Amino acid sequence: MRRFKRKHLTAVDCQHLARSHLAVTQPFGQRWTNRDPNHGLYPRPRTKRGTRGRGCPGYNPEFFLAGQQRCTNDMAKSSSVGQDSSKDSEDEMIFAAEGHCALPQGGDGAAWPRSSGKRSRSFEDERNQATGTSQWDGVSRKTPRHHLSLSCTRPREGRQEAEDGVSWFSAQPGESSQEVEDIGPDPVPDSYYGLLGTSPCQEPQSHICSLPSEVLRHIFAFLPMEDLYWNLSLVCHFWREIISDPLFIPWKKLYHQYLMNEEQAVSKVDGILSSYGIEKESDLCVLNLIRYTATTKCSPSVDPGQALWSLRDHLLLPEAEACVRQHLPDLYAAPAGVNVWALVAAIVLLSSSVNDIQQLLFCLRRPSSTVTMPDITETLYCIAVLLYAMREKGINISNRIHYNIFYCLYLQENSCAQATEVKEEPSVWPGKKTTIQLTHEQQLILSHKMEPLQVVKIMAFAGTGKTSTLVKYAEKWSESRFLYVTFNKSIAKQAELVFPSNVICKTFHSMAYGHIGRKYQLKKKLNLFKLTPFMVNSVLAEGKGGFIRAKLVCKTLENFFASADDELTIDHVPIWCKNSQGQRVMVEQSEKLNGVLEASRLWDNMRKLGECKEEAYHMTHDGYLKLWQLSKPLLASFDAIFVDEAQDCTPAIMNIVLSQPCGKIFVGDPHQQIYTFRGAVNALFTVPHTHVFYLTQSFRFGVEIAYVGATILDVCKRVRKKTLVGGNHQSGIRGDTKGQVALLSRTNANVFDEAVRVTEGEVPARIHLIGGIKSFGLDRIIDIWTLLQPEEERKRRNLVIKDRFIRRWVHKEGFSGFKRYVTAAEDKELEAKIAVVEKYNIRIPELVERIERCHIEDLDFAEYILGTVHKAKGLEFDTVHVLDDFVKVPCARHNLAQLPHFRVESFSEDEWNLLYVAVTRARKRLIMTRSLENILTLAGEYFLQAELTSNVLKTGVVRCCVGQCSNAIPMDTVLTMRKLPITYSNRKENKGGYLCHSCAEQRIGPLAFLTASPEQVRAMDRTVENIVLPRHEALLFLVF
């Protein structure tokens, strides 16, 4: 018998081989014969030429045995497997999940034909006789599913199957069976694996489902809770059982359940607090928290000695050891050694920043440490839920500790998400884009497919990439058409540059103008400015005039324009107004009836397209928007509408959007609602939704600025269910100033004051006014100053008033009449300009000229950027100075008892929103006011840092830095708190210093007992600081 037999090809064989590459790349797909189809393709040991080295890979016949499968054309047509229920239970267990097996397809989609069909059938019959199965019994059921199967036939099962039937492989001629048996098995296929095609069972099987449950539990512990319950628990029953296991991340589950106020979780946490003495009445509640944390159960593999050694480089380890050794000696000198979890808890409680927690994680994750990440995160979640519960129970403890833990865990759990680079949300200033990465929260939004009539809300904090998310959403669902609508024209123009072509970007007023407003423009009956009481007063009925009534009519029309109502009724008349003495009084019923009558008459005349001379009858921008809303517009060409800055929607705009048949996405920050005076209502709270998503991670700033913003929401607005977090980059809030500075104010008057200050000196600074110098209204300031001058002076100096409205008062009542009108009309803009003129008086021309000279249009070259928060909304700056004209908290928390009339709730939400917007404009550095620091003290943050008392007293006696305190730092205490220095926006500096333990206890409550025992603290003199408020602030608090 010849050793190498020549293969003869028929004409049909040659044609098929010439038409396709599968004959070479997928030999397993060729027709079957009664001999090995891969004959000659396997490496064979050539024993006659010498034996191979022991390390040489050998031929593994069992590997190929496990991979062989018999395929027929009938199998390619089969649409199901495992249909024969008469098979034995073992086969059912092994092949129950198997799928289709199809032959490789030719170029025309048909299965490759087989030549020598008779010989193939005889081989199949021979094979079936050997295995005792029919063609369908043995082939269709035992053919593994190609790409859908999660597992493949195990090698042992494959070998058993081959041994049960006729062997497909035998020793080649000239080779003995012993020679083949002597060849050691290969751990993997040969080095040419895959080059000659593979069968499904030869492909490496490394699916995540094949991992042990212990490994899966370890992986799942890294994921956010939302992903665990909303996504992974729905994959399969096995994963759901792992996630639902009570022993799987119990503290992480308990933390989130407590935040959701689940009754069982609240009861469990309350039981822990009461059982371990973590209560408001106990001075040792914080020490008891450490004691409870020390009982934390961890993995049996944890070596306490190695874990303690891994903490050796942590900056707070000496302080934590001193604290535990002094106050919890049983945990420090335990028979098994120092309790590591007690030290971990002490480090967490003494931490002053997120960096301290991140360093703790870094130390415990060293290769030398035996502590697993689930052990670490579970311990941190344990501390976090107890700290959160302590605040809920009224225990005086800083929210900064909980925030540090939450922030660190948030970054850890969300850093593993698949990142996609996108552009930061567009700014109205060209070129201000930064690269960001999609978070898991953004990925959830992108995965949601909009359906008709769906209402989706995206509740986003400042700088979280709201517009970027919409851009990526439009790119992903590119087959759909979207309408992006906003309120700001410049934002809409910038959006056109970043959105894909399937998105149309408009403002609400531009769409209304195209349908309604254009008609009034053509008739020259469009009022480019808002309706003023001065205009209305000129058309009021005789005997019913006056600026007070005219203001009432204007306000009635404004309320109607903002509403979703079809008719103007008495309900649109304001309930309160100011009388001629400036007092706030309730509007009488007769005045309401007169107000609605005059407003209706005015509205009827405004709607007419005929020409008229009276300015009061000209259509306003809000007027034609109202007419468009009443016309019931239909935007049927879009699949969904994006409403940006939804917190500033009026009911009229919401009526337009919600009446559309397509899907709606409302996106915005509910805490940036600062236009309620224009009739805006928060659509993110009032509109019912079908789906709601959240964006809580800001790409704009780091942890320090994020903490200030989160604390404003926490303390002033009671927002605790969702927490604002930032990135992992550095940011500062204690007065560091570098480079360009933005000075943000609440009022235009304060902006003018700052512009005067920074342009003083021999080398005046270059400034930029947000929105441009024209929009700031310097010309009107000059006109009001000119109106203030006597008539003779105006004539002598040839002073001319350019503003037409102000010029009218020259022949009426002059400056005094103009001022009375502004007060009666409650025109805030003109009130601010009058205040500027009265403050600087004769210096006005010089100061205005200087500001104009120092102003530059390109803000990139300005040293100072000045503006109000309303104009800065949507912008961001490297360094932000928050000026001192925002809502004020007069003193720190520990002194508020001296001001019983002060209440945070006394101020409107708009005031806190303005402060929140100002703070969140900063990217790198925030310069705070003293009032803003006082707000942080309401949450327990005093910028204190623990130090070893032995180090503090190295230079001698140290006294308390509080001005009216005479206590010295005692030597028998282990730790001492130091107040960190801070520079305020008014350029005053608090240099800080060491606090005695009595003053520390007044500020940080039971945390002070980590530094000294309650007996030592009580033995010290208690200092009560004298609070002296400015006269106007004291009167203000008495009023509220």
From TrEMBL:
It is found in: Chromosome; Nucleus. Keywords: ATP-binding, Chromosome, DNA damage, DNA repair, DNA-binding, Helicase, Hydrolase, Isomerase, Nucleotide-binding, Nucleus, Ubl conjugation, Ubl conjugation pathway. The gene is FBH1. It comes from the Eukaryota. InterPro entries: DNA_helicase_UvrD-like_C (IPR014017), DNA_helicase_UvrD/REP (IPR000212), F-box-like_dom_sf (IPR036047), F-box_dom (IPR001810), P-loop_NTPase (IPR027417), UvrD-like_ATP-bd (IPR014016). It catalyses: ATP + H2O = ADP + phosphate + H(+); Couples ATP hydrolysis with the unwinding of duplex DNA by translocating in the 3'-5' direction. It comes from Balaenoptera musculus. GO terms for molecular function: 3'-5' DNA helicase activity; ATP binding; DNA binding; hydrolase activity. PANTHER family: F-BOX DNA HELICASE 1, UVRD / RECB / PCRA DNA HELICASE FAMILY MEMBER. Pathway: Protein modification; protein ubiquitination. It is an enzyme of class 5 (isomerase). This is F-box DNA helicase 1. The keyword DNA repair applies. One of its GO terms (cellular component) is nucleus. CDD domains: F-box_FBXO18 (cd22095), SF1_C (cd18786). Residues 205-254 form the F-box domain. GO terms for biological process: double-strand break repair via homologous recombination; negative regulation of double-strand break repair via homologous recombination; replication fork processing; response to intra-S DNA damage checkpoint signaling. Belongs to the helicase family. UvrD subfamily. Its EC number is 5.6.2.4. Residues 30-56, 100-164 are annotated as: Disordered.
